[in-house]
Amino acid sequence: MPLSPTSSWPPTTAPEATSAKPGRVLIAQQDDALARGPVTGWRARAAHRSLRWLVGYGCQSWRAVVGLCVVVGLAVLLGLGSGWVPIADGRAVAGRTEQTSDPGGACSVVERVGLGLHYGLPLVAPGMQSTCSLDTASRRGQVLTVAGWALQLGGWAFAILVVAGYTGLLRKT
What we know:
It is a single chain. By secondary structure, this protein is mainly alpha-helical. It folds into 2 domains: about 20-60; about 60-165, no CATH class. Helices cover about 55% and strands about 5% of the residues. The radius of gyration is 25 Å and the shape is elongated.
């Protein structure tokens, strides 16, 4: 490549700096802000680190989608597994409610999947809560209910991160 009289050698901008993706530049800026100190206080630093890990400061919102899918998968496994966890009288933790023709009977696989989806998916009501529920009178039922609440909290958190990430609310410039 011949040099013109107005060009200089070496070039003033590095090729990798001009061809970098905007998301990587924003992530590098936020990492630098965390390392050099504009983000102060342990709470702010912890929130900054968690945003980096969860959604790449809003530049990698696909991570929140993956997290939501993991939460839904774990919730479905909780629903399915609740049909195999025994309590008194040979019954399982997941049992039919009083609104069915067989109260206290075993829930079907579809009902248990619906129970898991109830815990894992925010704003989606599969309708199985009225026919199949966890027996909270037993210790095992209480443990599975609290686990379901934790999954529900995780589902809401990831759903909010998905919406905020894809609408640009998280991206810091």
